[in-house]
Amino acid sequence: MKNMFKNILVLCVMCSSAASAQIDLLRNQVQQIVTQANGTIGVAFENIETGDTLSVGGDGRYPMQSVYKFPLALAVLKRVDEGTLSLNQNIFITKKDLRLKTWSPMREKYPKSDTALSLHEILSFTVSQSDNNGCDVLFRLLGGTNVVHQFVHGLGVTDIAIAATEEEMAHEWNVQFRNWCTPLAMRKLIRMFYDGKILSDTSTSYLLRLLEETTTSPGRLRGLLPLHAIVAHKTGSSGENAHGVAAATNDAGIITLPNGQHAILVVFMTNSTANENVRDNVIARIAKSVWKKYEGKR
Q1: What pLDDT, in 10s, does the model give residues 186-201?
Q2: N or C: lower Cβ tally within 10 Å for the chain?
Q3: Does 66 qualify as catalytic in the annotation?
């Protein structure tokens, strides 16, 4: 009997050592890839089922840009769960709400007149298509950015700041840095969401579907994965300033791995002088490295 327990212990140690070696290999791959970003990059990874974790620059502060529409959606859907909002309720959108010089598929669909849209449609525009006007409509609905900031901090995720609307960020380049987060904090928030610790099961499934329907920046987390791969994610982009510097090139979400497990992967990039294709490819290669690590493993 003692020999049996001894053999089991040795096997467990061997398995643990092998898993640790695989994570070290993945870390080395990530560290090599991030050097191509020509900027500062932070990566946070977690396999939900196995507990494997990895962080490279994960405790740094990075401007979120549109990734902050994910915690905004959480705050909205929490109100839905509490019964103070409904996905079916109509919200009146005026032409003043549809700013012209910003990314807004919602404005393109409804360009000519004031209109009433359901909260569901506005959320879909904001999350899946990263609509900036929809984002600010939702901030006003909740009472401002500080409401969302306090909501997320109340969940115990404190290495994050939500301070400026999309309209405010558009006025001056440096404003975007007021909306910051560490990759590790975003990983924690995504894990809490996935585990059902923030929203009801219905709202969790609903938001997962909106994230899976994301259409922006397909060359990032999705870029080098098979077409059938399921990725529930939120991107964030600053564009480049007059000096060719990109303040934010981000993607954060959940990848369903080829073995059926699920990986949270957050990649935040700031102050990069690489062109957009290179920046996107850096994120795509990190995601592919994670995918390959679990390919064929059950």
Answers
A1: 999 999 999 999 999 9
A2: N
A3: yes
